[in-house]
Amino acid sequence: YADLAMYQAKAEGRNTLRFYSSDLERTSANNISLEADILRAVSQEQFVLHYQPKVDLETGSIVGAEALLRWNRPGFGITSPNIFIDIAEETGLINEIGAWVLNEACTQAAAWQNLGCGPLQIAVNLSPVQFFRQDIVQLVAEALRATGLRPECLELELTEGSLLKDVERTRLTLQKLKQLGVKIAIDDFGVGYSSLSYLKNFAVDTLKIDRSFIFNLADGTRDEAIVRAIISLAESLGLKVVAEGVETDLQLGCLLNHPCDEAQGYLFSRPVPAEKFSALMIERPQYLLPKQRMQLRKA
Ligand code: C2E
Ligand code: MG
Ligand code: MG
Ligand code: MG
């Protein structure tokens, strides 16, 4: 019986091991096919950018757009960056994708400007992998040169985590980017490995309040206290402040009690393809904020 028990344990062990390894194989096979698909996606032009308006909270006008990457993956449909950015970063493919994003977004923004859409700031997300590449400054300079987009109309969004990876290098790169005239925003502000000292040392222009603080935003909440503090920090430092993930009138109403410069979220519009964004600007160049709605009702 002892032999039998040992035999069973071994067999189970083997089975378990085999099961485990085939599971592993399956995930890595998935990743490999995802990787291969991403590689193809670049050359087969399966990537597209969607644009989400940024709204000025003083006037209700669209003053900018964030370019958000979408992958039209054959057999899967429109795929969100959350599914593939990590792998693209691990494999380095993000560099190629990111360069495409930068050029595409600048080309589109320049086209909107030439159509007389007024000054529109385009925001592009940069991955830390891309940011720490030797030639990011040349890449940005070249995108501006090739498209003729005014540098101040390009804003690069970076997360707190990526800024703190290599503080000295970050400081230098940001300085060079600033010399080109582009704007720098800190994305998802407040949830990173926050160290406020970088606000002192780095040349940034904009703070984007992370949408987790906006989600339950209402008068008198802890989230409101945090949002108020971020806005007043930005104000004292002379930075622009943008709230992301605004979905409801309640959240907007609360934001409007504070001097928050801009907002972005489903309340105004989801990210949309370029043609739809053009239509949006033509049809509804500005949103009615609660205050203006009230004035309209009175009149
Ligand atoms: P992010 O830069 O913080 O972008 C904001 C995300 O919030 C977008 O998700 C947007 O669709 C979503 N969003 C906007 N308004 C609302 C709202 O009212 N409610 C909710 N629940 N969500 C809202 P998306 O497009 O899936 O992008 C996810 C993340 O992927 C981005 O977060 C960014 O970190 C990354 N990403 C997107 N495009 C690029 C890109 O071109 N390059 C790189 N490196 N990263 C990108
Ligand atoms: Mg962003
Ligand atoms: Mg964000
Ligand atoms: Mg985010």
Automatic annotation (TrEMBL):
Residues 31-285 form the EAL domain. Coiled coil: none annotated. This is EAL domain-containing protein.
